[in-house]
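Box 3.1 A note on notation
Throughout this textbook, protein chains are presented in two layers. The first layer is the amino acid sequence; the second is a token string describing backbone geometry. Keep the layers aligned when reading.
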Amino acid sequence: MTKINWKELGKGFLLLFICLFFIPNIIGILFIYFPVSDSIYPYLANGINYLFLIFILVSIYKTSLWADLKDFKKNWKQNIKVAFKYWLLAYIFMILCNMVIIQLVGDIAANEAENRAIIDTYPILSIFLMVVFGPFIEELLFRKGFKKTFQNPKWFMIVSGILFGFGHLLAAMNFTSIEAFISTLPQMIYIIPYGGMGYFMAKAYVETDNIFTSITMHTIHNALSIILILLMGLFI
């Protein structure tokens, strides 16, 4: 039977709520009273949001982060090898899943479409948010925040992957009406490739017991994805 540390589970979900819902909404409300131009808003709002999240997460995990960083530097060859190995497996898994799902759904994941639009419009912002800040924040939220919850590492990897996948599908869900919500349900099938990527990131974390291994893996994936999207924009 899987043993669950309910206190750690509660802390993990509370942190997800604060970082993914509470803080972004507070920042959004502030910009209602202090409006800025549409060209500046994405840079300013996202920048402030990410800085707040980094401050909170580093404050919570600063001791273990420092220990992990020293260990990562000491064993960097092995850690990078593990990161690249599981990124390659995850990438192959995502490609195969997406090839099948696109045929069924008829379109790419809404999160992917949104990211492509942001990259095309704000390439510099995308590099900082998706390559530098995003992997760091998401790995602390979805991996480090839940690692102590499950005694069995397999359950940690599965749950971490599911949460990671669901977190990337929230942009696709429309809660304005029942009809609108039902129309977005087919997008939920994309939890398979996103969840698979999250699973392999958790596996890299478990194998090295170092959060910077999964951060490195996440960074590799996002950086290569941005490069591919920018290259596609040049040649298509």
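The chain has one domain: 6-235. The chain has nine helices and no strands.
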